[in-house]
């Protein structure tokens, strides 16, 4: 069986970094490419680093190349874009949607996307509405297998801690046992678990479009 070729977008972030490490350790993947704007502080025989201009469609197309799976873990914050919602959309919408469309054209079969719990294109909240629009657009790109992950609060050690997450993480972990039934999807999840579930979904490559919330992610990793 031929080894899989994967491309990771957003590899410099917490979730993306975990995805890359999972892929490098997984014998099913023979090549792992990361698309970055600058440097990438990881080296491995299976890993290639490709610098890309995400504002340039030709650059994205060229750096995607050809392969089997695209992982999109890209995301920004209002602080990073200084409250500029156009710039926010350029990152959180344009990058994953362009990657899905161009990936389909290049012959990629599987797309794995990090979204958010509560994503809904009809939501009043800007963030949840945008995430819902991304989910719809990526699904509409018609790759053979689209896997959308909607985690709640992500747990892990960031290089740059976010104040809100530092405050919420211990609270969320403390009340997680209360989140059952319809509320289970709001349970916090470790980025390492999320990455493991994403890689599992990529290998399963179920036909069609699939959404995974907390329970579905735990099922994928057998926890």
Task: Furnish the topology, listing elements before pairings.
Blueprint (H helix, E strand, L loop, with lengths): L3 E6 L4 H12 L3 E8 L10 E5 L5 H8 L4 E4 L12 H22 L3 E5 L11 H15 L4 E5 L4 E2 L7 H13 L13 E2 H14 L3 E5 L1 H8 L2
Q: What spatial order of strands do you see in the largest sheet?
A: 3-2-1-4-5-6-9
Query: Structural class from helices and strands?
Result: alpha/beta
Total helical elements: 7
Assembly type of the chains comes to single chain
- The whole-angstrom Rg is 17 Å
The run of helices and strands is EHEEHEHEHEEHEHEH
Biggest sheet details: 7 strands, parallel
Helix content: 40-55%
In the CATH hierarchy, what is the architecture at level 2? 3-Layer(aba) Sandwich
> Termini distance?
28 Å
Poorly predicted sequence stretches spanning 5 or more consecutive residues? none
CATH topological fold name: Rossmann fold
Please report which band the strand proportion falls in: under 5%, 5-15%, 15-25%, 25-35%, 35-45% or over 45%. Answer: 15-25%
How many beta-strand runs?
9
Tell me about this structure.
The chain has seven helices and nine strands. It is an alpha/beta fold. It has one domain (4-218): Rossmann fold (3-Layer(aba) Sandwich). The chain has a seven-stranded parallel sheet with strand order 3-2-1-4-5-6-9, sandwiched between helices. Strand 5, helix 4 and strand 6 (145-149) form a beta-alpha-beta unit. The longest helix has 22 residues, at 85-106. The protein is globular, with a radius of gyration of 17 Å.
